[in-house]
Amino acid sequence: MKKKILVILTAVMIFGILACGTSKEKIQLETQKNELTEVEAEQKINVQPVGSFIEEQSFEVDLNDWGNVTFATYVPEITSFLSDGWNPDIRFYLMDKENVLYEFPGWNEEHTVTDMFLTVSAVAFKDYNEDGLLDVITLSEYETMSGEEYQLGRIYFQLEDRKGFEEDSLLTEYLLKNQKNDSILSILETKDEYWDYKDSLEGHRSTYNQFTIMEENKALWMEDYESLGEIVNYAVVDLDKNGRFELIVSGMGGTGLYTTNRIFEINENYDGLTECITSFEDGIEPDLAYYTWEQYMDENYMFHYVVTDVERNNPYGCYEEIFDLVLENGIVRTSKIATKETIFSEAEVDSIIYTDCAGNIITEEEYKNAVSNYFTGCEKTVINIGWLNMEELSEDINEIREQLENSYNTLYESIE
Known about the structure:
This protein has ten helices and 24 strands. By secondary structure, the chain is of the alpha+beta class. It has two domains: 2-189, no CATH class; 207-414, no CATH class. Strands 16, 17, 18, 19, 20, 21, 22 and 23 form an eight-stranded mixed sheet that branches. Helix 1 runs antiparallel to helix 3 (169-177). The chain starts with a helix and ends with a helix.
């Protein structure tokens, strides 16, 4: 483990040394760096890839200003440590057919490391820093001289106008030190925690700041909340994993068990709340105030949540509907998975009808397996939601922030 940390810290020290100097030197260095990056993005067309092409970890992807390109993975052709102590590392390229458009940065110009590269575990494309540009997340395995194997996550942040990609060495170090490299999911779920850590160094997006924003805008999410139902609850979540928290207000009431939901999200400037647009299928609002949710991550690293709606449509029948809920770009959508209709006759169950998302009749067994079949191939996690009763919301500013934090911590601790 000391070997791994030493490698990362050495790289960080190198970045630190390069960043030293006078303000004028810094400006000149940054100007030269940007100019070189622009030139390199144009000149890399004639560069030949180094290593062996790995098709299963190479993807066709639309990367904003780069357009539709191939993210190509090339691995070194070695199976043992080299005598000089520097071993070739993995290389990533953006390619257009046979032409190299861009080569991603390595630890050094030679793309060498002291540990030995073993394999690529995963590649993902997500806007990690929320600047509107897709970033590249890679997860690779390495082996130390002592035979210890470990995974290393690296995130390459896309720059504007095809100026290339930059790696945040502090983030790479943070993921390694805190053992957050188990999967792409664990890297994504560490985002809030990392921003808080970085916030302690430079200040901006801390969780405390987000709770403060929610408290300062409580008039917005508390507005006429009594009309939402007889029982109204609220909870702090991060459904889309973009680092900007959401606050859900959910009320239920009436003999039909009708639910009304309002969802607010911290805005992109981290200075206010924006109410999310809701697009519920058939206008049916699901019952969100359950303490346990099933979360599924699909192959595109989109997060889905299984929610249900139970509704009495008349004294002689009730519906139970299962939905897939997704939050993306400020819009909450649901898609029906399956429905169970129970018909009563003088307080006795007369019949039960099961249907799929298209309204076709299915069996009880098919209904029970509807969720697992719907999310085939997705990664499942059970999460806890920290619901609190609106009637118990404090009037004290600091206590409100504490209540919001307690709600979020219920979620955060369940995904640790």
